[in-house]
Automatic annotation (TrEMBL):
Record flagged with keyword ATP-binding: no
Transmembrane segments: 38-55
EC number(s) from the headed UniProt entry: 5.1.3.6
Domain spans labelled NAD-dependent epimerase/dehydratase: 93-330
Lineage, highest ranks first: Eukaryota, Viridiplantae, Streptophyta, Embryophyta, Tracheophyta
Protein name: UDP-glucuronate 4-epimerase
A cellular-component GO term for this protein: Golgi cisterna membrane
Catalytic activity line of the entry: UDP-alpha-D-glucuronate = UDP-alpha-D-galacturonate
Similarity field: Belongs to the NAD(P)-dependent epimerase/dehydratase family.
UniProt source species: Elaeis guineensis var. tenera (Oil palm)
Any single Pfam family the record assigns to this protein: Epimerase
InterPro entries: Epimerase_deHydtase, NAD(P)-bd_dom_sf
SUPFAM superfamilies (alphabetical): NAD(P)-binding Rossmann-fold domains
Keyword terms, alphabetized: Isomerase, Membrane, NAD, Transmembrane, Transmembrane helix
Length: 432
């Protein structure tokens, strides 16, 4: 009994080590008594490892093949049908980020006027993917097909260009959000830098090359104090990694324009809001919290100055996107070489009338008929800028861009959508 207890609960761990070492030694000598046996064992182990590794690579390859959510005749047919142009001089557009906020609106607008549209989206979980799935269903109900895939997947992109000779790419897929860059910097590099380059590589290699219109951001103006912001103002002092990746995007696209003749239009969006919007944005999360009786945090700038944004309504942004597609010239390259210089443009798409964040909250309170629990705090140093204000003269002159929706009207439409989408009782909604 005592011996058994000693074996199970040794008083000194060192003792066990010594005893085990002796036992292992004895076994070792028995097993590998001769050099030839050892040689055979070694051969056996090498063969075992080799067959394990080849089996692993077989499993990897086949699971990649099995889990790929794209490919096949049926898939290609869906893409061709969705890309069909149904009007004279229409265009066929690959919309990246099509299940996103701006992407879904632009896709529907293009489809409605008879253009061909194919969407691409990776449905990541930066915010509730069920909202992205709902947008996908909405697009499907219009006859727009959204491919589930990533802009970092070069094989998928070249396959898409094989199936459809897209005339345009509307590139809206990105890691959005200014403050989230503190938490997850790598995701900004992955989508906004690496993903952008992979997409441009596919566009450059496509024959014919498409014209590219893509989403930059008002955040590139960074610490600028000169208002309103004009395209010619300096943009070399970003305040967040998000802004830095968007600014890099402007430079990366310039390179592809310069070397390969890709026609490029970059759009600096100013805090876009509206129905089917992004739950991570202030107007959306404030609405959710106000309705749930939870407090909202309102940031305030230096010297107790309210923060302000040039909030821009989604329908105005859509018009700016379509205007950009319609005025984009063709790319000029093929086979990796440009034939002549191609168009390179950058435009502000804003509303030209900044509104403070507390005013935004007051408008929401009025439409929601609920008082917000306001918690006002100093703006943390996490990438925010105190204000934005767009000068849109260039977009007005060259794209015919003319925003028509003020924040009051736009938020009214947003609140109406929000209450309906999230199933709130129509308490006083007749007034909306
Ligand atoms: O215009 C742009 O370029 C950018 O607009 C928005 O960024 P942002 O203007 O920061 O929009 P929100 O996150 O909705 O914030 C709006 C305002 O509310 C403030 N805020 C935000 C969140 C919060 O909890 N409290 C709060 O006071 C922010 O400081 C900011 O002044 C988008 O999130 C970016 O993807 C986009 O690129």
């Amino acid at each position: 009994m005592r011996m058994l207890e000693d074996e199970l609960f040794p008083s000194t761990p060192g003792k066990v080590k010594i005893e085990r070492a002796h036992a292992i030694n004895r076994q070792f000598h028995r097993c590998f008594a001769s050099t030839s046996t050892m040689f055979l064992w070694a051969l056996f182990l090498i063969a075992l490892t080799a067959s394990y590794l080849s089996f692993q690579s077989f499993v990897d390859t086949s699971s990649k093949y099995l889990s790929a959510s794209w490919g096949g005749l049926h898939w290609e047919k869906q893409i061709r049908v969705s890309a069909e142009v149904r009007r004279a001089h229409g265009i066929s557009v690959l919309v990246t980020g099509a299940a996103g906020f701006v992407g879904s609106h632009v896709s529907i607008a293009l489809h409605k006027r008879g253009d061909g549209v194919v969407g691409l989206d990776n449905f990541n979980s930066y915010y509730d993917p069920s909202l992205k799935k709902a947008r996908k269903s909405l697009l499907a109900s219009h006859g727009i097909f959204v491919v589930e895939g990533d802009i970092n997947d070069g094989r998928l992109l070249s396959k898409l260009f094989d199936v459809v000779p897209f005339t345009h790419v509307m590139h809206l897929a990105a890691q959005a959000g200014v403050r989230y860059a503190i938490e997850n910097p790598a995701s900004y590099v992955h989508s906004n830098i690496a993903g952008l380059v992979t997409l441009l590589e596919a566009c450059k290699a496509a024959d014919p090359q498409p014209a590219v219109v893509w989403a930059s951001s008002s955040s590139v103006y960074g610490l600028n104090e000169k208002v309103p912001f004009s395209e010619s103002d300096r943009t070399d002092r970003p305040a967040s990694l998000y802004a830095a990746t968007k600014k890099s995007g402007e430079e990366i696209t310039h390179t592809y324009n310069h070397i390969y003749g890709l026609s490029i239009t970059g759009l600096r969006f100013f805090t876009v809001y509206g129905p089917w919007g992004r739950p991570d944005m202030a107007y959306f999360s404030f609405t959710r919290n106000i309705l749930q009786g939870k407090p909202i945090t309102i940031y305030r700038g230096k010297d107790r100055v309210d923060l302000a944004r040039d909030f821009t309504y989604i329908d105005d942004i859509v018009k700016g996107c379509l205007g950009s597609l319609d005025t984009a010239e063709k790319s000029t390259g093929s086979g990796g070489k440009k034939r002549r210089p191609a168009q390179y443009r950058i435009y502000n798409l804003g509303n030209t009338s900044p509104v403070t964040v507390p005013t935004l909250v007051s408008i929401l309170e009025r439409y929601l008929k609920v008082k917000a629990k306001r918690n006002v705090v100093e703006m943390p140093g996490n990438g925010d800028v105190p204000f934005t204000h767009a000068n849109i003269s260039l977009a007005r002159a060259e794209l015919g861009y003319k925003p028509t929706t003020n924040l009051e009207t736009g938020l009214k439409k947003f609140v109406k959508w929000y209450l309906h989408y999230y199933g709130y009782r129509p308490r006083g909604s007749k007034n909306l």
